[in-house]
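Pasting as-is:
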Amino acid sequence: MYQRLVLVGNLGRDPEMRYTPNGTAVTQMSIATSRKWTDASGQLKEETAWFRVSVFGKQAETCNQYLNKGSRVLVEGELVVDEKTGGPRIYTRRDGTAGASFEVRGNLVRFLTPKSQSGDNQAGAVTPVPVEPGAGTMSEEDLPF
């Protein structure tokens, strides 16, 4: 079986990079995707979905160096499912309501923000670094956060 998820959206905050105990770089990004449509009554509707994306290795270092809050990216990867439910990770918010976290293991990140709109830390041209299938496979214990 095979799954592939493609997201195009904007970073909601600056990427955070950490290292696993064996020294592999892991960058976590929060990406917002949105869609707009007109409902049957003619009202304009908008829906935003948030995804937590983890990228590993050299690509993690590149993302941390060149991306920042508001950067537009295209991410290809796989959905990381909750082992208990087979769906998104379910948690309880501080106010007691239920929440779900859509988590993605990114295999390829393409930077879509034009240089003219990028911040100071995006000065150079960047070529995305593809990850070999299975190269970023890690267990949850390996993640530093």
